[in-house]
Amino acid sequence: MASLAVLFLPVLFLILRAEARPPPPLHGVRHLAFEEGYTQIFGSSNLALHPGGKRVRLALDQSTGQSVSAIPVSVFPSSSLLLLRTITGSSSSCTAATGSGFASQGLFLHGFFSAAIKLPAAYAAGVVVAFYLSNGDVYEKTHDELDFEFLGNVRGRDWRVQTNVYGNGSTHAGREERYDLPFDPTEDFHHYSILWTHQRIIFYVDETPIREVPRTASMGAAFPSKPMSLYATIWDGSSWATLGGRYGVDYKYAPFVAEFADLVLHACAVDRSASASASTCDAAAASAEQRSAMAAFRRGHMSYSYCHDRRRYAAPLNECAAAERVPAIARLFGPDGMRLPRRRHRGTGHRAQDDVM
């Protein structure tokens, strides 16, 4: 992930007319203004705030020493750019890829973390937008991490969404799952949320749970258990993000802009010197209705599963035993963990049973 050191960089304020509106708010949580809970960590003028401070734009471009005023107005469609004001700062004199990002002002031990996100449209190969929890700045060799990573694609191909879990520096054992989305994430905002408690981790798209990671004895220290900060970033992942690096970022389409709204930190804050051994932040387990919705999403939209990747893990990781006992899911994936092509009955336009499981 990007550098986790918190820097004091200028923040840009924009008065603009919204092209897309965030979805209806999530129930029972308060949305924060940027200044209430977040700080910029890199990107200088590539981070911009909507009036009121509850909506943030992160941009990835190729800096050429020009001031922010040189960013094309087309970043903000039609005549929506009414006022652009730079507070302080200077720009680099050399050409380099420049992403941007922000982080929570504090550390948290468990809680609910959420944002409504709208991804860059058109050609976005190599672009990575991330919304994640990490403590890599505090625990360099034993860090924990919970990721939503959005992986850009070539024109005409959909963005892919990846979740991952690391605990106690277990980066040698990636626990990635990848999904197709049942909507276009570049057209409108959608909520992406992480619930992290002492007993479980649940990832949500809008209000549908898409993945649950329960704390088990077999997972041991690989279950994240130390205080973490929240991060949101956009950056150049040309070396791996799109078809293993086959397609990189093409800066003739820059700037690439991701928007964040409905920022939620419904969590237990801790002091950096506090013990990580106890927390009163917890939540009830998913309801039967939520579990049914999660199972349906996973059957229909999961495109890669580390638990079924025999080329990567000849012996499945311990927590994958439960996944192996669900034949309706296991038979959807090939030996590389990728979802098998969907099949159709010959002579009909109907999908085979495997395709709808």
TrEMBL record:
<keyword id="KW-0134">Cell wall</keyword>
<keyword id="KW-0052">Apoplast</keyword>
<protein>
    <recommendedName>
        <fullName>Xyloglucan endotransglucosylase/hydrolase</fullName>
        <ecNumber>2.4.1.207</ecNumber>
    </recommendedName>
</protein>
<dbReference type="GO" id="GO:0048046">
    <property type="term" value="C:apoplast"/>
</dbReference>
<feature type="active site" description="Nucleophile">
    <location>
        <position position="145"/>
    </location>
</feature>
<dbReference type="GO" id="GO:0071555">
    <property type="term" value="P:cell wall organization"/>
</dbReference>
<dbReference type="GO" id="GO:0004553">
    <property type="term" value="F:hydrolase activity, hydrolyzing O-glycosyl compounds"/>
</dbReference>
<dbReference type="Pfam" id="PF06955">
    <property type="entry name" value="XET_C"/>
</dbReference>
<dbReference type="InterPro" id="IPR013320">
    <property type="entry name" value="ConA-like_dom_sf"/>
</dbReference>
<keyword id="KW-0961">Cell wall biogenesis/degradation</keyword>
<keyword id="KW-0964">Secreted</keyword>
<feature type="active site" description="Proton donor">
    <location>
        <position position="149"/>
    </location>
</feature>
<dbReference type="InterPro" id="IPR016455">
    <property type="entry name" value="XTH"/>
</dbReference>
<dbReference type="InterPro" id="IPR010713">
    <property type="entry name" value="XET_C"/>
</dbReference>
<dbReference type="GO" id="GO:0042546">
    <property type="term" value="P:cell wall biogenesis"/>
</dbReference>
<keyword id="KW-0326">Glycosidase</keyword>
<comment type="similarity">
    <text>Belongs to the glycosyl hydrolase 16 family.</text>
</comment>
<comment type="function">
    <text>Catalyzes xyloglucan endohydrolysis (XEH) and/or endotransglycosylation (XET). Cleaves and religates xyloglucan polymers, an essential constituent of the primary cell wall, and thereby participates in cell wall construction of growing tissues.</text>
</comment>
<dbReference type="GO" id="GO:0010411">
    <property type="term" value="P:xyloglucan metabolic process"/>
</dbReference>
<dbReference type="Pfam" id="PF00722">
    <property type="entry name" value="Glyco_hydro_16"/>
</dbReference>
<keyword id="KW-0808">Transferase</keyword>
<keyword id="KW-0378">Hydrolase</keyword>
<feature type="domain" description="GH16">
    <location>
        <begin position="16"/>
        <end position="260"/>
    </location>
</feature>
<dbReference type="GO" id="GO:0016762">
    <property type="term" value="F:xyloglucan:xyloglucosyl transferase activity"/>
</dbReference>
<dbReference type="InterPro" id="IPR000757">
    <property type="entry name" value="Beta-glucanase-like"/>
</dbReference>
<feature type="signal peptide">
    <location>
        <begin position="1"/>
        <end position="20"/>
    </location>
</feature>
<dbReference type="InterPro" id="IPR044791">
    <property type="entry name" value="Beta-glucanase/XTH"/>
</dbReference>
<keyword id="KW-0732">Signal</keyword>
<keyword id="KW-1015">Disulfide bond</keyword>
